[in-house]
């Protein structure tokens, strides 16, 4: 009889613990929003991010009007032929001569310019020798100043594209110093 009571008690205990788990009806969830949150595509066409300006949520990707990135130095001359001609009148860079690191300028020239212009500035870089680009002039044949070099590095000219994304304003002035050094050699 005592064993029957023990078996019944054990059976009741097993039933009471197993009755809490039901696979068809799960238990309570704490903070259900963490498990089953509503997913939004942030800059999509959803109504949650409609803007009164009609940009369909894209205003979060646009910079504020008149803002410039940190460390950016604006260049006042536009990308026009007249501005290029007027940039030839600029003979001095805004850099102090003590801040111009000619070794760094030579390294930057070798990285970004020598592939077309050649390490001596003679217009015989590796791509010109392989005939990928033709008509790259020698610096000695050109009427250039620091300002015109800076303008061309900033905006590009003819087949040469802009290097403003690769070189900061200071680095472009340093490369202009190096190009004039190559021209005068």
Tell me what you see in this structure.
- There is one protein chain.
- This protein is mainly α and 185 residues long.
- The protein contains eight helices and no strands.
- It has helices at residues 2-18, 32-35, 81-87, 102-112, 114-117, 126-129, 146-155, 169-183.
- The protein is elongated.
- The mean pLDDT is 82.
Brief digest:
With 185 residues, the chain is mostly helical. Helices cover 39% and strands 0% of the residues.
SSE layout and pairings?
Layout: H1 2-18, H2 32-35, H3 81-87, H4 102-112, H5 114-117, H6 126-129, H7 146-155, H8 169-183
CATH superfamily of the domain at 81-183: Cytochrome c-like domain
CATH class of the domain at 81-183: Mainly Alpha
Looking at the overall shape, the CATH architecture of the domain at 81-183 is Orthogonal Bundle
Beta-strand segment tally: 0
Order of helices and strands: HHHHHHHH
Q: What percentage of residues falls in helices of 4 or more residues?
A: 25-40%
Radius of gyration of CA atoms, rounded to a whole number: 35 Å
Largest sheet, strands/sense/barrel: none
Large-scale geometry: elongated
In whole angstroms, the N-to-C terminal distance is 115 Å
Q: Count the helices. How many?
A: 8
The amount of beta strand, in percent, is under 5%
Q: Any key phrases for this structure?
A:
185 residues, mainly alpha, elongated, Cytochrome Bc1 Complex, Chain D, domain 2, 8 helices
